[in-house]
Amino acid sequence: MERTQGATLALYGAAALAEIAGCFAFWAWIRLDRSAWLAVPGVASLCLFAWLLTRADAEFAGRAYAAYGGVYIAASLLWLWLVEGARPDRWDAAGALICLGGAALILAGPRGG
C-alpha cells in the first residue's frame, strides 16, 4: 500500500511526537525530579512511536529511519519552542532545514533498478 508523500510526512510527524513525548517523560522523571510513574506513559508513547515507523511506506527499514531523522530534528525544535518555552535560534532553524532537505531527498529520490 503506497502512501502519498504528504501522508508519509504526517506519519513521520506523529511518530516524532510520540518519540519526543516518550523521551521527555523520562527526562522529566530523571532530570526534572518528577514522578517515576511518568515512565509508564513514556514507555507506551515509545511503543507507539516504534509501531508508527513500521507503517512508513519504505522498502527498507534503514531508509525509513533515515528519512524520519530529519522530521524528528524539526519536531524536536518545535517541542523546544512550544513545550519547553525556548525559541529556536537561526542556527537551529538552518540545521532543521538542511535535515528536512536530506529527508526529502531520501524519500523522493529516484531509485535505480
Automatic annotation (TrEMBL):
Subcellular location: Cell membrane
Membrane topology: Multi-pass membrane protein
Assigned GO CC terms: plasma membrane
Pfam families assigned: UPF0060
Transmembrane segments: 9-30, 36-53, 65-82, 94-110
Keyword tags: Cell membrane, Membrane, Transmembrane, Transmembrane helix
SUPFAM superfamilies: Multidrug resistance efflux transporter EmrE
Family membership: Belongs to the UPF0060 family.
PANTHER family given in the database record: UPF0060 MEMBRANE PROTEIN YNFA
Entry protein name: Uncharacterized protein
Source species: Azospirillum palustre
